[in-house]
Amino acid sequence: MCRRSQAAAAMALSGVRVLELGGLAPAPLCGMILADFGARVVRVDRLTRSPAASDVQGRGKRSLALDLKRPQGAAVLRRLCRGADVLIEPFRHGVMEKLGLGPEVLLQENPSLIYARLTGFGQTGKYAKSAGHDINYLALSGVLSNLGRKDENPYAPVNLLADFAGGGVMCALGIVIALYERATSGRGQIIDASMVEGVAYLSSFLWKSQNAGIWSRPRGENLLDGGAPFYEIYRTSDGKFMAVGAIEPQFYEQLIKGLGLDSNELPMQMSISDWPEMKKKFASIFAQKTQAEWCSIFDGTDACVTPVLSLNDVASHQHNKQRSSFIKNDQGEISPRPAPLLSRTPAVPSCERDPFIGEHTEEILLENGFTKQEIAKLHSDKIIGFSKPKANL
Description:
formyl-coa transferase, domain 3, 2 domains, 12 strands, CoA-Trfase_III_dom3_sf, Alpha-methylacyl-CoA racemase, CoA-Trfase_III_dom_1_sf, alpha/beta, 15 helices, 393 residues, CoA-transferase_III
């Protein structure tokens, strides 16, 4: 799955030039998605970066270290944007304008530029200039109020929903949509990607199904939020877990059979008053066998029962191995293969290590028409940086 030049040329986003301003989790994922599918992504880093702000999603990117807070640095970015297709910026409302790099400036110089603004609260509204994190965006979207167990506070999962799904993935979708439209109009546009709105949009099913009875009970007592015994996670005898999602009656019947029970001797599946007692019964049965033993019982059935795999185990699972769902880079690090899988122009992710900050500064500037003399002056003025101080200028 390592990228080769011929394979890269055949990818769906081949030829798309992206500038990604270095930031935290959502923007790096957005840039990595574009890079995985063939875009040439340059990550514009600060000259120095704290370990906490390091980009672990730098696959397929190159790094240019640049001080945007100084006018000479902002001028370098403006020049780069004239030849770019996409700019991804992750700063709070008003930051880019203060640097003289707002969309009204950059789009005037390059009308075909797609200017993607990825923030928590969006470019307008009461919280536009406020700090926040995944849990805050999730809270304001309404989604957090639906997450959690019965009689407990709402529970925020790891920062997958707002940061990555509502932020990084939705922003990448917006960029691809804008690129598609630009093929007809020839014009760029501004993308206002709010993580609050992104995760709210992801939750459309919750909104659309409110009158379907699925969410009519308090949090943690409904069909899909931990209330039902047949949509639950159970501990096995070896301390591992099995995930059960046997919603449909025919699947539920196979679950009951696999557990060694007789449905004629049990309450009706949708008898909500019996759900707590049934959960206890199922839990006691699952606790009697190991995860591997339960897999041997349920694999190949339609009981909708699967093992809860750890990150250490997931790549070696037979199904994932058969699909090559996980890849290994040159350093032996395992990560998910880009998705979805395209039949003609699949992603061919880079297997090289992530770039060092400023590793490709000179290379990128030369490609964009800067002379060696200009680069040397920018370096001596500490406007740009290199990962190797002895770079040959």
